[in-house]
UniProtKB/TrEMBL annotation:
Its cofactor is L-ascorbate. This is Fe2OG dioxygenase domain-containing protein. Transmembrane segments: none annotated. PANTHER family: 2-OXOGLUTARATE AND IRON-DEPENDENT OXYGENASE DOMAIN-CONTAINING PROTEIN 2. Keywords: Dioxygenase, Iron, Metal-binding, Oxidoreductase, Vitamin C. One of its GO terms (molecular function) is L-ascorbic acid binding. InterPro entries: Oxoglu/Fe-dep_dioxygenase_dom, Pro_4_hyd_alph. Residues 233-332 form the Fe2OG dioxygenase domain. Residues 19-45 are annotated as: Disordered.
């Protein structure tokens, strides 16, 4: 190795140019990531790429790239970073991600959207003015002015315009008609709902990502910061359908989400209330409900219910008509990583809180007993 590193640099450039058959990313066994991020470097945006990981992860990782990589094309950087990230996901998971990507591509190639205006964010056409204003003002006061907190951590507010709800319902119907006609086998929205569709799978992914980034995250940052509300970075968006000829009710469960947005789109229905039973961590998910944790929430078309994904809930039977809800599960990779190293979730789990209080009371009692003992046997 030369003293000034000239030879090494030449080899680096050679590695990037490759053999002339295209762009070759340098091999990371010879290029280590930096230990500290280059905070002055402005990373590329990875938003418009179909990647296995969140675009945010790529722009954050870019700051750790070896200096020589910072000015190469985005494609080279993506290839290099993907190779690194792939090492962190097990093969089964990688195959699943690849299969799902192909599944989505197949739908997108064949499905013809009905209302193109739904596929990118048009805030003034989608949201009611009061909601838009509150989010633009972006303060706890502005949010509180439009929401009601039915119980701690359960927020309801008017959100979607009736016209938007109609368009989305008609797009979903159009998609379902296409599925039926082409006999395309689609995935169900989640493990519990049989009726409905994953909106992300037929092109609404970008719009829903924007909905999370610009409209759900600001609220979650204020109200759900202890469960990663400010670092939400991926979502799963779907509609669920209830009625006598659809799913009727939904048992008590928690969502695979840090924050859940649940908006009723219509149509005419009776029943179908959402019931809540307290927030619980993984360990305490089946523990008893305290009387103050019991709450029922009625659905109103256009109105949203925002809650922690770990807030145990279910849906009562829809006794008449047809009810369709838009659900956006919002997740934080940062929160999920940090959670692995924690045992006490008393900042949000009702049972962890109760246990902590019990421990504190016992410790106070033990101290009192000690003091009393001291009184009985005064030191001479
Ligand atoms: Zn707990």
């Amino acid at each position: 190795m030369s003293v000034d590193g000239t030879v090494d640099r030449r080899r680096d450039v050679q590695a990037m140019i490759g053999n002339g058959n295209g762009v070759v990313a340098p091999n990371h066994s010879t290029h280590r990531l930096r230990l500290n991020p280059n905070t002055e470097h402005k990373p590329d945006s990875y938003d418009n790429l179909q990647l296995e990981y969140s675009p945010l992860l790529f722009s954050s990782l870019e700051r750790y790239l070896p200096p020589i990589m910072l000015n190469v094309s985005r494609d080279v950087k993506v290839q290099y970073m993907r190779e690194i990230l792939m090492k962190y996901s097990p093969e089964g998971e990688r195959n699943r991600v690849q299969r799902h990507k192909e599944y989505r591509q197949k739908i997108m190639l064949n499905y013809q959207p009905l209302h193109n205006e739904l596929y990118s964010m048009h805030a003034t056409n989608f949201f009611v003015p009061s909601f838009l204003k509150a989010v633009n003002d972006n303060s706890e006061d502005s949010f509180r002015s439009i929401i009601s907190e039915a119980a701690p951590g359960i927020f309801t507010f008017e959100m979607l315009q009736p016209h938007f709800c109609e368009l989305l319902l008609s797009e979903v119907e159009n998609f379902e008609r296409w599925v039926c006609e082409t006999k395309f086998r689609i995935m169900q929205p989640n493990t519990m709902n049989k009726y409905g569709a994953v909106l992300d799978d037929f092109g609404l992914d970008t719009m829903l990502g924007k909905l999370m980034d610009d409209y759900v995250r600001p609220l979650s940052k204020v109200f759900f910061s202890e469960v990663g509300g400010s670092t939400l970075d991926s979502h799963h968006g779907f509609v669920v359908e209830y009625g006598i000829d659809r799913d009727v009710d939904l048992g008590f469960h928690v969502d695979d989400a840090e924050v859940t947005l649940n908006v009723c789109l219509g149509k005419q229905f009776s029943g179908g209330e959402l019931f809540f039973r307290g927030v619980r961590c993984d360990k305490h998910v089946n523990t008893e409900t305290l009387p103050e944790e019991i709450l029922d929430c009625c659905h109103v078309p256009g109105h949203a219910i925002l809650h922690r994904g770990r807030h145990r809930h279910g849906a009562r039977a829809t006794t008449g008509g047809h009810r369709i809800n838009l659900i956006l599960w919002c997740r934080s990779s940062v929160f999920r990583e940090l959670k692995k190293y924690q045992k006490d979730f008393s900042s949000w789990c009702g049972e962890c809180q109760r246990e902590k209080k019990e421990r504190q009371e016992q410790s106070v009692l033990a101290t009192k007993l000690e003091l009393l003992k001291g009184d009985e046997n005064p030191a001479w």
